[in-house]
């Protein structure tokens, strides 16, 4: 009992000492040191209180989410300020378009950016131009110099300057110049900014006129060169890849992927557009995503062809090819080129290579360990959490968070600072979002909150693109010639070559299950047939995952 009493006294004394120190530290009034009876202390804490009230208000054709904030005054006095912002939640097509001209004044500062990124999901460029032009013909205000007219003119210039800068292809894709010729004279007359916009619109209108007169000279709107002729299989030397250093191969692949990623149009990834790409009359939709898919397929097939075409190699020799591609994948990881990394890993996980028991047995154990670590990056666990975490950590960093040896090599030999993601993650998110969230409310209003959520994904793509824009690469002609000479193997050819190397029926020693990022799309329930050279299918070869997919409905692959 005494021992417990002593502990209680000791604790009480400690608390008393701490309270006195805290009192002195915060300059609180109290008894003089040494007095037995402390006098009562009064402590005043200042905490700025931010009170927000969120309500919904519906006006004619539009629903706003209204946020009213009351910021109470600080130490200088009891004064307070009240701010009010209105963000569009849903509305009719016309009201959403007209909100472009009023969004800043209403505190909806992100609306213009979000609208221009996503409007193709619910309307067209022609329709937006028509609504805005109609409004410009009846501007507000009593005179050109009224405050209301000046604010309106400023908003008009902001909208069209942003639109022309970020999405000039919207205007160049118009079928004829009539709308631009109608719009240009209606722009404000009293500012140099408006004059510049007018000149840009008239130049595009002139281009459209020329295109109407000379259509053959303007066929390629995407900016990508036409597809090269099919490679000559007789000139393909599969084992030549062993003569290229892994860092050089990774550098060249990163060059190709970076060029494609920088030119990617983010809104092409929207679920409502990408999921409709196979419909008749939409063959040219999402061309920038298709280009990325084609490169992914080409690299996967290059890995397949180099490992399978030399059927007479001994298992030890073929194992060196697997080790080479594992090293290339590791170098791609160091360069934050996740697209090429996943293409290589996916090819190595495909059935024609996955089943080569003797080849994998001859492969270096350390190389296999590194390969399995790289494969884990694209694990489906927790919705691909590792891939997402890496993009979050390294998206805008200068170097990858990897082995010091690889990073040093990366510093010395590569000028690439950007991150090239595996686009399938974003396509999955946007397709699932498009499927799960309604386009319209029950009253028929367009659900703009859905577009805000889509923009959060598109903004991630744009941020990663910005990290790639200053990358500088040189082209290695020797590797380019080899890469473009790789033949396109069909699924049947891949299996035939694999069976020539090792007879069927022997169990595979590899326990690693291939992973392919997919998302189910109920809107596209028709079955899909993969044809040789199909640019939108991820693989023309089978894997355990593809066998599973054949039992499902239509899926989106990338």
From TrEMBL:
<dbReference type="InterPro" id="IPR008937">
    <property type="entry name" value="Ras-like_GEF"/>
</dbReference>
<dbReference type="InterPro" id="IPR019804">
    <property type="entry name" value="Ras_G-nucl-exch_fac_CS"/>
</dbReference>
<dbReference type="InterPro" id="IPR000651">
    <property type="entry name" value="Ras-like_Gua-exchang_fac_N"/>
</dbReference>
<dbReference type="Pfam" id="PF00617">
    <property type="entry name" value="RasGEF"/>
</dbReference>
<dbReference type="GO" id="GO:0007265">
    <property type="term" value="P:Ras protein signal transduction"/>
</dbReference>
<dbReference type="Pfam" id="PF00618">
    <property type="entry name" value="RasGEF_N"/>
</dbReference>
<protein>
    <submittedName>
        <fullName>Ral guanine nucleotide dissociation stimulator-like 2 isoform X2</fullName>
    </submittedName>
</protein>
<feature type="domain" description="Ras-GEF">
    <location>
        <begin position="245"/>
        <end position="504"/>
    </location>
</feature>
<feature type="region of interest" description="Disordered">
    <location>
        <begin position="218"/>
        <end position="237"/>
    </location>
</feature>
<feature type="domain" description="N-terminal Ras-GEF">
    <location>
        <begin position="84"/>
        <end position="209"/>
    </location>
</feature>
<keyword id="KW-0344">Guanine-nucleotide releasing factor</keyword>
<dbReference type="GO" id="GO:0005085">
    <property type="term" value="F:guanyl-nucleotide exchange factor activity"/>
</dbReference>
<dbReference type="InterPro" id="IPR001895">
    <property type="entry name" value="RASGEF_cat_dom"/>
</dbReference>
<dbReference type="GO" id="GO:0005886">
    <property type="term" value="C:plasma membrane"/>
</dbReference>
């Amino acid at each position: 009992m005494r021992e417990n009493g002593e502990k209680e006294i000791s604790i009480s004394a400690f608390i008393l000492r701490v309270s006195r120190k805290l009192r002195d530290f915060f300059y609180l009034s109290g008894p003089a040191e040494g007095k037995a009876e402390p006098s009562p202390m009064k402590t005043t804490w200042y905490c700025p209180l931010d009170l927000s009230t969120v309500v919904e208000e519906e006006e004619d054709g539009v629903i706003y989410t209204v946020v009213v904030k009351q910021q109470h005054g600080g130490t200088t006095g009891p004064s307070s300020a009240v701010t009010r912002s209105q963000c569009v939640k849903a509305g009719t097509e016309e009201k959403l378009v007209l909100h472009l001209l009023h969004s800043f004044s209403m505190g909806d500062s992100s609306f213009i950016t979000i609208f221009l990124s996503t409007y193709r999901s619910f309307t067209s460029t022609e329709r937006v131009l028509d609504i805005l032009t109609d409004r410009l013909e009846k501007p507000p205000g009593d005179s050109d110099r009224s405050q209301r007219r000046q604010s309106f003119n400023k908003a008009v210039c902001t909208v069209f300057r942003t639109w022309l800068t970020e999405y000039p292809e919207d205007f160049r894709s118009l079928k004829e110049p009539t709308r631009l010729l109608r719009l240009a004279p209606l722009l404000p007359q009293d500012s140099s900014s408006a004059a510049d916009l007018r000149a840009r619109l008239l130049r595009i209108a002139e281009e459209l006129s020329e295109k109407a007169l000379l259509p053959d000279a303007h066929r390629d709107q995407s900016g990508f060169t036409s597809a090269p002729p099919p490679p000559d299989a007789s000139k393909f030397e599969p084992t030549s890849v062993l003569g290229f250093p892994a860092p050089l191969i990774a550098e060249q692949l990163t060059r190709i992927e970076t060029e494609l990623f920088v030119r990617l149009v983010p809104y092409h990834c929207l679920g409502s557009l990408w999921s409709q790409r196979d419909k008749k009359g939409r063959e040219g939709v999402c061309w920038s995503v298709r280009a990325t898919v084609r490169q992914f397929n080409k690299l996967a097939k290059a890995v397949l062809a180099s490992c399978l075409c030399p059927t007479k190699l001994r298992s030890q020799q073929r194992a060196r090819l697997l080790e080479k591609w594992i090293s290339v994948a590791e170098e791609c990881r160091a360069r934050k080129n996740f697209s090429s990394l996943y293409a290589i890993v996916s090819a190595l996980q495909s059935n024609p290579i996955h089943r080569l028991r003797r080849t994998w047995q001859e492969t270096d154990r350390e190389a296999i360990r590194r390969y399995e670590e790289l494969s884990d990056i694209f694990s489906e666990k927790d919705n691909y959490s590792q891939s997402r975490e890496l993009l979050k950590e390294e998206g805008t960093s200068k170097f990858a968070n990897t082995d010091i040896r690889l990073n040093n090599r990366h510093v010395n030999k590569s000028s690439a600072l950007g991150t090239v993601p595996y686009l399938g993650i974003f396509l999955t998110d946007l397709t699932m979002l498009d499927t799960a969230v309604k386009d319209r409310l029950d009253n028929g209003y367009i659900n703009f909150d859905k577009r805000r959520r889509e923009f959060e994904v598109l903004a991630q793509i744009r941020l990663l693109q910005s990290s790639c824009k200053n990358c500088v690469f040189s082209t290695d002609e020797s590797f380019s010639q080899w890469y473009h000479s790789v033949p396109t193997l069909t699924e049947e050819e891949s299996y035939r070559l694999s069976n020539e190397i090792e007879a069927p029926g022997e169990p595979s020693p590899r326990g690693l299950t291939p992973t392919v990022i997919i998302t189910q799309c109920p809107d596209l329930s028709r079955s899909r047939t993969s044809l040789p050279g199909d640019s939108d299918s991820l693989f023309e070869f089978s894997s355990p995952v593809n066998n599973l997919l054949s039992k499902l409905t239509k899926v989106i692959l990338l």
